Amino acid sequence: MEALIVQLRRLQETALAELTKISATKDLTNWRVQYLGKKSELNALSKQMGGLRQEERPLFGERVNEVRNALEAAYLERQTALAAAEQALRLAQETIDITLPGRAIGRGAIHPISRVIQEIEDIFLGMGFSIVDGPEIETDHYNFELLNLPKDHPARDMQDTFYLSDELLLRTHTSPMQVRTMERMQGDVPIKVIVPGRVYRRDEDDATHSHQFTQIEGLVVGEGIRMSDLKGTLESFAKALFGPEQRVRLRPSYFPFTEPSAEVDLLCVHCHGEGCRVCKGTGWIEILGAGMVHPRVLDMSGYDSTRYSGFAFGMGPERIAMLRYGISDIRLLYQNDLRFLAQFARA
Amino acid sequence: MKVSYQWLREYVDLADLSPEALADKLTSAGLAVDAVEPRNKGVSGVVVGEIVAARQHPNADRLRVCMVNVGTGEPLQIVCGAPNANPGLRVPVALPGATLPGGVQIRRTTLRGVESNGMLCSAAEIGLETRLLPSAQATGLFVLPEETPIGEDIVKVLCLDDVVLDIDLTPNRSDCFSIRGLVHEVAAILRSRHSFPEHIEAPKGAGESPIAIDLATERCPRYEAQVLDGINQTSSPLWMQMRLIAMGIRTIDLVVDVTNYVMLEWGQPLHAFDADSIAQSQIVVRQAHDGEELVTLDGQKRTLTRDMIVISDPEKAIGLAGVMGGENSEITASTRRIALESARFDGSSVRRTGQRLGLRSEAQQRFEKGVDPAAISPALARATALLVELGGARPIGPSVAVHQERKAGDSWQIPFVPEQCREALGFAISNDEMEAIFHALGFGVHRQEDKWLVEVPSRRADVTLTADLYEEIARLHGYDNIPSTVTVLPVTPGMRDRRQAMLAKARVLLVNMGLFEVRTYALTSPDALAPLSSPYRPIPLLLPMSDERRVLRTHLLPSLAEVAVHNLAHQVPGGAVFEIGKSYLTSELPLRSQPQEREVIAMLWFGETEGTLYEKARRYDFYDAKGVLENLLAALGADASYVRSAIPWLHPGRSADIVAGEETIGVVGELHPETAKAFGIDRAIYAEIDVASLLATRESDMQAKALPRFPGSRRDIAIVVDRETLVGDLLRTVRERLATSGLLQGLRAFDVYVGEGVPEGRKSVAITMFFQHAEHTLTDDEIEQLVATAIDALRVNHNAQLRS
């Protein structure tokens, strides 16, 4: 038996030694057939058990099993290692250039003016305002007369007008919708609306003027509305649009349809009040016109000015877009060069 | 409005308030100061000198060698090139070491071998606006009056130490179109006293005025005139010239300068006529006759209309009221007697007349905005006094004044309740403080308990309502003192309506499908619209600014085509753009009522796609556009189908009407080659969706269905049909034929093939169908039955053959 056991040991050593040299799955299969298969030496040795003594047989059988288990275990281990190595190799071969671009899903851009309008709309929607739209071709009556600008009023010079006939014109501001909204509401309060839209003035196009541009009008009418409410509303708006450190400054001004009237300045969005080129060193930038709705406008629109009051404001999305995005020439906004527009692709 | 700081300071105590600080205060009070400009543009070391001798330069034809007395004893030798460098003239002399505007340094130098100790200056060289000077003074040396003290600093002589504030006056503040108004305003802002004389005593001549006035139009509420004799036709004093120039007014001669000076001082325009040219010494203020002619002071023959006011005598018109005088009554060198006019004319009428004739004088601007009736008499008195003082004129008789029956009041009263003012403005301010503000403005206050009457002088025509008083309180108390409060109002839901919400979604959807939003001009040219052969004639502007922008567009395609042309010309190989915009449609021209404003989502694909690693660059085609539309309309809940279109400006074989329900809601197609050519582009795909129609056809809200419990089965067939057969028709046949079964859950074409193995004129279409039953798994027999039915219908309706 000793001799057999020696043979077993030698077999084990030889098999394990060979196993370590194997690096291909095919060779591993051959190894398995050779050392663990039906015709293997191990099987042949185990068959010699019959020639052993009765008392030696269990011991020998145990040894044979030990060797078989050891080889099986070594085989499995080797197989796992080889599979891992082969997978690693395959993965390495499958490596791609992850710096190449992905399959393009075309993405355009919302026009910067629309972006600004949407943002402003969202701020006022959050404050409970509704959005109303109105006609771009207006009557002289709504565009001027009901806004306290009778014919031949010198203030009409402030807005050079494109006339289509004696009575019809391209609206010079979104303010006619103040009157149209009040008429539609037929005396109901509160009114809280904003009016975004295209407007037209007889201006030569240059870096800061455009014969067509957009405006956002705002109107609030109710009982007990104060001028301080106008300031508070615009301050909330300014903080929402330009950040919590924003402040507004009102300066007396004149619009025929508001009294008192104000120009509204914000802290310069570039220098935050320090004074820079954008704000011409003043620290403030003019951004809005506003005021308390003129009593005559209220009365003409069916709201008794001794009972109701309100405020109105108007701003230019182009100006805000230009400040925001550092655009120096308004014409870029109407040229629609895709290289320009592509700069606004962020969602 | 340009205003001289020194002139203001003459009447109101500015203490040590600098021009810049004054500008800030004016701006804060609503008179926005655009610029603060020193009169001195960099002059120093320039004094008054007298040319005592001048001789020809030995080495230069055009130069003279002058000996100049500058009050320092020895005359200075100065070489000068001005043709009027003549002995006896007093002129500005830049001494060695002087600086002139533009940083020019004057040094002792030698000019062509002759020593020159300084420079004799022209108006431009010392920074004066030559366009505001008489032509004789605009070129050559600037000649100073004979009595100008020699050696005096020119800065003092020409008031160059003055500073000009350029105020952007709002149209309501016509009162500040004068020194008088600004004095009142500044005094109110500073709460200081002023010394502007509101009443002027004019020297009166003996006897009666030779002139009679007849007011024959209601549009002249008041007219006054003073006749003067013996006027010395000279130039006005330097200080007056400098004030006029500082405020942007040309200096001409004494009479004109005095009328302008008084206009600046009082805001009341004046006009001087040659009194001897007024027939029968009678001034008639009347409406012009249609077709009446008048040659105005600028030499232009004007044809007048009935709605213009003219100053006339019984025989002829002699001036256009408030706009411009007539040449026939112009003051000339031979004029002996002048008639000075101070009047008020209807602002609207003056404005219209000026607009009609293309004139816009300083006087006209003041009449348009309204002049103070209380200034008419004192302004006339002031001008009379100045002409007497400066021109040696003698008044003949007193002034004559005629006015309409109802004389405009010198003041009016406005009710004012202090508590209501506090409520309207939202800030605390005491009654006494309010009263102090009114007093500072020169308003009277009659306090009766809590109800006041505020008396407003006629110079403040802009203050007529209680709300106007609120503004005065707010602006003089300071807008900065208004707190920020929150409106106390019932809560209102803020949300976009259906249309607004849909458009906001459409915008994001299109952008996410690669389209760029553009914003184009609504004004275009008829030529740009011509290729569309639209049934609508475009609405024209009455007064266009250019040919390119003179009608309102009837379609968006030309606008988008313009975008394509611009981009293709600027190295952009192609792209897809959209605009949510309007076209303006009417069937009646000239326009009588507001036209239809048709809102569309318009899209254009032009040029090539951007090539990528995965797909080569290629031209955009119909299916790019259709894919976007299908996606967009599905996302917006519209169930659309595509029907061959008959629109003439689109490719007849590559265009479709987009139909939802019964209604055509839009169109998509490749531009007809002729259309594309007319727009200057090679090929492009246009699509548009009518917003109102889309909104009308949108489906009801989404409804969930339970998921099927039994598996379905897919079957593919390939059939051969005529080439022109529309796949959409094949699918519709299958869908309709199998509709009753309720089992067809999916249907689409997945391949269209023309070529080898398919007969000439035919094409192979592969269709996949998906069948599913809610209650059981379909058997093969059931499915084969359905497929056979479908194939049968295709054969009957479309002459389809099953492809083996």
Automatic annotation (TrEMBL), chain A:
<feature type="domain" description="Aminoacyl-transfer RNA synthetases class-II family profile">
    <location>
        <begin position="114"/>
        <end position="343"/>
    </location>
</feature>
<keyword id="KW-0030">Aminoacyl-tRNA synthetase</keyword>
<keyword id="KW-0547">Nucleotide-binding</keyword>
<dbReference type="GO" id="GO:0140096">
    <property type="term" value="F:catalytic activity, acting on a protein"/>
</dbReference>
<keyword id="KW-0436">Ligase</keyword>
<dbReference type="GO" id="GO:0006432">
    <property type="term" value="P:phenylalanyl-tRNA aminoacylation"/>
</dbReference>
<dbReference type="GO" id="GO:0005737">
    <property type="term" value="C:cytoplasm"/>
</dbReference>
<comment type="subunit">
    <text>Tetramer of two alpha and two beta subunits.</text>
</comment>
<feature type="binding site">
    <location>
        <position position="259"/>
    </location>
    <ligand>
        <name>Mg(2+)</name>
    </ligand>
</feature>
<dbReference type="Pfam" id="PF02912">
    <property type="entry name" value="Phe_tRNA-synt_N"/>
</dbReference>
<keyword id="KW-0067">ATP-binding</keyword>
<dbReference type="Pfam" id="PF01409">
    <property type="entry name" value="tRNA-synt_2d"/>
</dbReference>
<dbReference type="InterPro" id="IPR002319">
    <property type="entry name" value="Phenylalanyl-tRNA_Synthase"/>
</dbReference>
<dbReference type="GO" id="GO:0000287">
    <property type="term" value="F:magnesium ion binding"/>
</dbReference>
<dbReference type="InterPro" id="IPR010978">
    <property type="entry name" value="tRNA-bd_arm"/>
</dbReference>
<comment type="similarity">
    <text>Belongs to the class-II aminoacyl-tRNA synthetase family. Phe-tRNA synthetase alpha subunit type 1 subfamily.</text>
</comment>
<dbReference type="InterPro" id="IPR004188">
    <property type="entry name" value="Phe-tRNA_ligase_II_N"/>
</dbReference>
<dbReference type="GO" id="GO:0005524">
    <property type="term" value="F:ATP binding"/>
</dbReference>
<keyword id="KW-0648">Protein biosynthesis</keyword>
<dbReference type="InterPro" id="IPR045864">
    <property type="entry name" value="aa-tRNA-synth_II/BPL/LPL"/>
</dbReference>
<dbReference type="InterPro" id="IPR022911">
    <property type="entry name" value="Phe_tRNA_ligase_alpha1_bac"/>
</dbReference>
<dbReference type="GO" id="GO:0004826">
    <property type="term" value="F:phenylalanine-tRNA ligase activity"/>
</dbReference>
UniProtKB/TrEMBL annotation, chain B:
<dbReference type="InterPro" id="IPR005146">
    <property type="entry name" value="B3/B4_tRNA-bd"/>
</dbReference>
<comment type="similarity">
    <text>Belongs to the phenylalanyl-tRNA synthetase beta subunit family. Type 1 subfamily.</text>
</comment>
<dbReference type="GO" id="GO:0016740">
    <property type="term" value="F:transferase activity"/>
</dbReference>
<feature type="binding site">
    <location>
        <position position="471"/>
    </location>
    <ligand>
        <name>Mg(2+)</name>
    </ligand>
</feature>
<dbReference type="InterPro" id="IPR041616">
    <property type="entry name" value="PheRS_beta_core"/>
</dbReference>
<feature type="domain" description="B5">
    <location>
        <begin position="409"/>
        <end position="484"/>
    </location>
</feature>
<dbReference type="InterPro" id="IPR045060">
    <property type="entry name" value="Phe-tRNA-ligase_IIc_bsu"/>
</dbReference>
<dbReference type="Pfam" id="PF17759">
    <property type="entry name" value="tRNA_synthFbeta"/>
</dbReference>
<dbReference type="InterPro" id="IPR020825">
    <property type="entry name" value="Phe-tRNA_synthase-like_B3/B4"/>
</dbReference>
<dbReference type="GO" id="GO:0000049">
    <property type="term" value="F:tRNA binding"/>
</dbReference>
<keyword id="KW-0436">Ligase</keyword>
<dbReference type="InterPro" id="IPR005147">
    <property type="entry name" value="tRNA_synthase_B5-dom"/>
</dbReference>
<dbReference type="GO" id="GO:0009328">
    <property type="term" value="C:phenylalanine-tRNA ligase complex"/>
</dbReference>
<dbReference type="Pfam" id="PF01588">
    <property type="entry name" value="tRNA_bind"/>
</dbReference>
<keyword id="KW-0030">Aminoacyl-tRNA synthetase</keyword>
<dbReference type="InterPro" id="IPR036690">
    <property type="entry name" value="Fdx_antiC-bd_sf"/>
</dbReference>
<dbReference type="InterPro" id="IPR004532">
    <property type="entry name" value="Phe-tRNA-ligase_IIc_bsu_bact"/>
</dbReference>
<dbReference type="GO" id="GO:0000287">
    <property type="term" value="F:magnesium ion binding"/>
</dbReference>
<keyword id="KW-0547">Nucleotide-binding</keyword>
<dbReference type="InterPro" id="IPR045864">
    <property type="entry name" value="aa-tRNA-synth_II/BPL/LPL"/>
</dbReference>
<dbReference type="Pfam" id="PF03147">
    <property type="entry name" value="FDX-ACB"/>
</dbReference>
<dbReference type="Pfam" id="PF03484">
    <property type="entry name" value="B5"/>
</dbReference>
